[in-house]
Amino acid sequence: MRSASCWPWPDFVEREANLSQRNTLALRAHAALYARVLSVEQLATLAEFYAPGDCRFFILGGGSNLVLTGDFDGLVLHIALSGRALVGEDDEAWYVRAGAGENWHDFVQWTLAQGWPGLENLSLIPGTVGAAPIQNIGAYGLEAGERFHALTAFDLQTGETVRFDRAACRFGYRDSVFKQEGWHLDGRFVIIDVTFRLPKRWQPLTGYADIARELAEHDPHGSARPTARQIADAVIAVRQRKLPDPARIPNTGSFFHNPVVEADTARRLLSAYPALPHYPQPDGRMKFAAGWLIEQAGWKGRDLGAVGMFEKQALVLVNRGGATGADVIALMQAVQRDVREKFGVELMPEPVFL
Length: 354
Ligand code: EPU
Prior knowledge:
By secondary structure, the protein is an alpha+beta fold. The chain has helices at residues 40-49, 104-114, 166-169, 209-218, 228-242, 263-272, 290-296, 325-343; strands at residues 13-18, 30-37, 57-60, 66-67, 72-79, 84-89, 93-99, 138-139, 142-143, 148-155, 160-165, 189-199, 251-254, 260-261, 278-280, 286-288, 303-304, 307-309, 316-319, 352-353. The two termini are 18 Å apart.
């Protein structure tokens, strides 16, 4: 594989690009090559320039789920494809499409303003529309995959455009085919746009305790059915209270997945720790709150080097200033070790490491 230079390169490719402002953990790193992709034509040009395997690609959206461990000796494609539109409607649903580079939160607020509810529980999640299906973003009782209809991706290996429907995406908890091993989709498919199916028979999703509490404060008698806008506002208020704003305190949201364990491990843990927040899964396994485990292991609000676990939500790793990828890895491993020793549970990181 030709690496560093991926030579030759089209004229819209920059050399030695600084990625510090392009990742919400604010880690310092450079990319040997960098391109801001504003059109599918640019992708087609790249596919013509590079034969499969010529060049290492990394596809960057909002950089909100990314740990830069050092400089990247390949080509970073920053996907900035824009546009949003209603592309279809039937008795059941509105079909709404957005370019992969659109800001996720702005897109959600726009759908609500148009009168198409359905994504309100996912308000204020950082990142782009194109990244949403990759890790099947979720919050407060909803995952993006539940509202997903289809996406269009550009295959850098063949130069063709491919459609993925919901089944093809193989969504799971913070997971999709784009992350699963053995599918070899990494760095190959660039998501161009995503279409969501927003149901006309909308039901408010207010089962999550934090959201129910927030709504009750504004409607103490619970007399009115909340609107999608009110749910969005409740979600925004809860997130602003608990989660650090990456613009002020660099972070990547939840740093670990909530661990899903087998039923016998779950029984053992729950008899030893009855207060451990847990969520039964359809397959009989049990999901546990990693934030609780991390807090009990003594890491809430505690720092190691230039990074720490956030004081209001122990699941969020924050950069206190000037951190490196090595600092992040050291803290990750310390937290994993202490949770493993205390609870016998393995925590897996949520962000992508580059
Ligand atoms: N908890 C603690 N201590 C903590 C943090 C949490 O005891 O420091 C307890 C809470 O009291 C609660 C439980 O753990 O009983 C769950 O906490 P929370 O409601 O804050 O949610 P979470 O499980 O920590 C997940 C997602 C978030 C999402 C929220 C709300 C994952 C990895 N994280 O967090 O997603 O916003 O639920 O739905 O699934 C993200 O993925 O980046 C993210 C922020």
